[in-house]
Amino acid sequence: MSLNVKLRRMRKKPPAGWDAIESTLEEFEQKMRDAETDSHEGKRKSEAVWPIFRINHQRSRYIYDLYYKKEEISKELYQFCIDGKFVDAQLIAKWKKQGYENLCCVRCVQARDTNFGTNCVCRVPRAKIDSDRVIECVHCGCRGCSG
Question: By C-alpha distance, which of 114, 111, 94, 112 is closest to 103?
Fold first, then answer.
């Protein structure tokens, strides 16, 4: 679904500043379409969705940084992006909390998705993991987002 289709569904005119971020969001949308139609041959079932999680993270981080770090977009435009589901609102809500600033995806903090009812392995600090082992999250492919 392209950005234009999402805009028509919202039936609201985009706020000022939309022109500045529209091209970047369109690029992310194109990357997302490419990742969705990419071949899954030779990949594990979970590996097929890793690029989608990464693109979702990049797109959400882009808007988050523009609003909270650089303060280059207005609150109206930020809220418009959330309402239009151009970004992952739950992920951004986690980024605002201490200790979750670099969280890769929301599934990594959901205890119900793990075997032992704990957080994902990528949430374990790198200092507590053997440095010679490469550990990847089963859900999103992250190699450690806790720092």
Answer: 94
Same domain for 105 and 72? Answer: no
| Alpha helix segments (H runs only) across 11-144 | 18-37, 50-64, 75-83, 89-95
What integer pLDDT is reported at residue 2 of this predicted model? 67
How many distinct structural domains can be found in the chain? 2
Report residue 25's pLDDT band, with 50, 70 and 90 as the boundaries: very high
3-state secondary structure of 98: coil
Together in a domain, 29 and 81: yes
Q: Which tens digit of pLDDT belongs to each residue from 100-131? A: 898 888 888 887 777 777 778 777 777 777 76
DSSP character for 113?
A: G
Are 127 and 58 in the same domain? no
Residues 131 and 87 in one domain: no
Measuring CA to CA, how many Å separate 17 from each of 1, 80, 81, 104, 134? 22, 11, 11, 27, 42
Same domain, 106 and 91: no
Confidence class for position 78, pLDDT limits 50, 70, 90: very high
**Amino acid (one-letter) located at 98:** Q
